[in-house]
Amino acid sequence: MKFASLVLLLPLASAFVAPKAAFRSMTLKAFDQEQYIAESKEMRLKHLEEQAMFALKISCENFDNAVFPNAMIAGDVVITDLLGRMGYLKNGKAKIMVVDTFHLFPETMEFLKVLEKKYEFKAEIFCADGIPVGDKAAFDKRYGADLWKEDIDEYDRVCKVEPFQRGLKTLNTNCMINGRTRWQGFERAWIDLFENAPIGGGLAKCNPLAYWTFEDTFEYIAKYKVPYHPLHEKGYPSIGDAKDTIPVPQDGSVKFVNYEWVGDKTVWCEYAKERVGRFVGLQNKDGSTKTECGIHVDGAERTWDRDLWESDKSKAKKLSSTDEALEIKKSGKPSVVVVYAPWCQFSQAMEDEYEKFAVAMAGEMDVYTLRGDEDREFVMENLNTNSFPTVNVIKADGTAVKYESEVRTVEAFSKFVKETLA
């Protein structure tokens, strides 16, 4: 048995007896670690490119109105370049949408012009409702220059969420392309290439970079010499509003300049670090640290295809103008008025309860609704409205008394009316 084993092994052993010259050539060729790392990165990037292009092809070939809301950050310029390479920007199969918050860095809108020229498209720009594109003075007059300091949630709705929703609706979007990745943090850790969002029966969402790291985006930018936001050269890994975006680290020692890294790139490229310089100093109303602008939170992709309290059977009476609202204040009769915006998720959430309240008050007091997002100056001056929804009890002398609680139930409203008019 031992002999048989030896016989079987002999041919194998002889295979390793190589001529001396061949053996010397093998020993002279060192293991080039850096070369193999570079090759493996190139293999990975090639796969990611093909995967992203597959996702974009599905989006642009199978949907009539694919729209890409573009913030011009690193991942977004990668998607812009991919769409450009595939011809979807030039032929119009993909539209670029930009939300101008009126608080962006000056470099951002200038950089948009660079992208428009290179890829031969014209972006659709949306901003706060009722304000001409680019007119910051008009925004300040209507909404206030310090809105973001006074009410960050209202700022997000006015400057980001509402224009975003309106843009999707205006462009008849049925597939939204965006640059979210799993690498950006736990809020996005489970996203896939495709999702559905609740718009008119289902808006397709395409996340072509879902499985990319932040480093991957810069590898792609360097490989294809893609134009990138100039603030990357000043130490900003991600770019949002100028009011709450800072370099990382703050001394600006890490940069991306002329398609090469300066400093320790891991400061930018570690997991969930891409947006660490965003939303600095901002908190949500519950005191938690702000990590999202409101656009990509649950339900934010919804659009409003109808007004609120629109049924002919509604007991909440609709005020169709500011003149009608003034008449109510001058009538000498106590009443209740809610100032709302149909796109506001909090207004939507209280629709049913306020209707029940109107039913409960029938025969005792009139209950009204007034859409307030179309004339904010009026509702701010006359109906205590800085955010939506705002409920006021109108006393007989015309004084509007604001309901301050976040509890919006029939019982809570009824108690407030009773106490206010006591």
Automatic annotation (TrEMBL):
The keyword Signal applies. GO terms for cellular component: cytoplasm. Keywords: Oxidoreductase, Signal. Its EC number is 1.8.4.9. Residues 308-422 form the Thioredoxin domain. The keyword Signal applies. GO terms for biological process: sulfate assimilation, phosphoadenylyl sulfate reduction by phosphoadenylyl-sulfate reductase (thioredoxin). GO terms for molecular function: adenylyl-sulfate reductase (glutathione) activity; phosphoadenylyl-sulfate reductase (thioredoxin) activity. Pfam families: PAPS_reduct (PF01507), Thioredoxin (PF00085). Residues 1-15 form the signal peptide. InterPro entries: PAPS_reduct_dom, Rossmann-like_a/b/a_fold, Thioredoxin-like_sf, Thioredoxin_domain. It is an enzyme of class 1 (oxidoreductase). This is Adenylyl-sulfate reductase. It comes from Fistulifera solaris. The lineage of its organism: Eukaryota, Sar, Stramenopiles, Ochrophyta, Bacillariophyta.
